[in-house]
Amino acid sequence: MIELRELTKRYGGRVAVDALSVQVRPGVVTGFLGPNGSGKSTTMRMILGLDAPDHGEALIDGVRYAQLTRPLRTVGALLDAGAFHPGRSGRAHLAALAASNDIPAARVGEVLRVVGLSGAGDRRAGTYSLGMRQRLGVAVALLGDPGVLLLDEPVNGLDPEGIRWIRDLLRGLAAEGRTVFVSSHLIAEMALTAERLVVIGQGRLLAETTVAGLAAGHDSLEDAFFRLTSQATDYRGTGVS
Ligand SMILES: Nc1ncnc2c1ncn2[C@@H]1O[C@H](COP(=O)(O)OP(=O)(O)OP(=O)(O)O)[C@@H](O)[C@H]1O
């Protein structure tokens, strides 16, 4: 379980995350939605202890990330799919992480299989396509068999087959009782993947609901999302006329 308590982050005079209080529960995929710049990545970075909140706290299974004794075994994250040495093979990258986190080496082959990179595991990661990098990032997240998973825009760069694969994977991981928190700015994709939704705009909580709950009373889910976030968008084109 992930718990955010009045989580707040300012950059200069600007509030990126504004007193965000949310509980993300195990057993379902929870989508984390908001327009560009609404604070999703900043929130995820604070959950992972990569950014310090100015106020409030983010707890994973009741403790802060820094207090976890075996972090990779508790929480797996995909933040930046390019975060590996390009000259190293996918397998070597995973093996180094496993060794430094006291994870059995046999787990490397298992996660390569789960993400469909068994055949490409010995290639240099720098030669991977964007979709293969995303898959390697997912393999890193799964390496410690964690109960909590945090993924920032995991479908970025994936083709339709890859998008379906990640959707099924996330739903399967949640069905095993894990907490799965996945950010996106694509409401249509989230509607197919997530059961619960946390929607933010300009760093503030706009809705914490189910997919059906968000759509209720609107022509479409997209319409509901736009209405909810229209007052909380930093950038908007005017179109041509
Ligand atoms: N290191 C930083 N320094 C200054 N401002 C930052 C920094 N990181 C984020 N911000 C600002 O904080 C706000 C929230 O950004 P964040 O990246 O968390 O949003 P996001 O919802 O993940 O956006 P996107 O969907 O575009 O990835 C934005 O206004 C952004 O410009």
From TrEMBL:
<dbReference type="InterPro" id="IPR003593">
    <property type="entry name" value="AAA+_ATPase"/>
</dbReference>
<comment type="similarity">
    <text>Belongs to the ABC transporter superfamily.</text>
</comment>
<feature type="domain" description="ABC transporter">
    <location>
        <begin position="2"/>
        <end position="227"/>
    </location>
</feature>
<keyword id="KW-0067">ATP-binding</keyword>
<dbReference type="GO" id="GO:0005524">
    <property type="term" value="F:ATP binding"/>
</dbReference>
<keyword id="KW-0547">Nucleotide-binding</keyword>
<keyword id="KW-0813">Transport</keyword>
<protein>
    <submittedName>
        <fullName>ATP-binding cassette domain-containing protein</fullName>
    </submittedName>
</protein>
<dbReference type="InterPro" id="IPR017871">
    <property type="entry name" value="ABC_transporter-like_CS"/>
</dbReference>
<dbReference type="Pfam" id="PF00005">
    <property type="entry name" value="ABC_tran"/>
</dbReference>
<dbReference type="InterPro" id="IPR027417">
    <property type="entry name" value="P-loop_NTPase"/>
</dbReference>
<dbReference type="InterPro" id="IPR003439">
    <property type="entry name" value="ABC_transporter-like_ATP-bd"/>
</dbReference>
